[in-house]
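Good morning C.,

I know you're traveling, so I'll keep this short. The sequence:
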Amino acid sequence: MGADDFLKEVKLALDTDPLFDDPFITEFKQLSVFELTQAQHFASLYYPHILKTRLYQASALGSCPDEQLQFVLSDILYDEYGCGDNTRSHMQLYRNFMTAVGCQIKASKDYFVLPELAQYMHTMEQLTRNGDWLSAIAAVGFASEWPIPQYYSNLLQGFRKIPGITEDALELFSGHITLDVEHSQMIEAAIRPYLHNTDNQQRFSLGIKQNMQARRKFHAALHHQIFVKSD
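The tokens, ready to paste straight into the viewer:
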């Protein structure tokens, strides 16, 4: 299979991943009101994930031998860190959301990390620090970028039902809907020359599979914590 056909299959598989029909996402689609206490619980449980995501990209950059892919990852990181403006970093935009729903911002070490999130972190750290560089690029450049517009669109359906929430407070999520399309296209163009043979395609697919499997387990834990335990 050629690189173009392979990438089409990869994108279709991500677009139709079971993640988008799981109980967690279904709740966000069907909510009539997203109670403030639930929003606060989500915001606090998700924060440790937000703090880590760009560190996987930095690790992948360090393991990648291709200069063009290094450039793309560094460009993505520049966006993530607010293009040089600390007040516009994606971590700060998320903290703006936390403040808007009434969370008090604490030191990062004081947040509870779900075991399933800890496993996701471990998977991504192993992939990007000690694993195959092509699988690492797949995990951080594709599995963590391509699904995000659809993913955040679903989350926004619920977030917009938080009493008193403003669009400014949701900037992190709404902004990624267009930004991560751009990021995915950049990665796709840079990785295409490496995806013309079966061995490399298998390596690439492995990174995506490991990311998405761990993410689905994290989703299941979030669903239980936010929607089941609160009933």
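Safe travels,
E.
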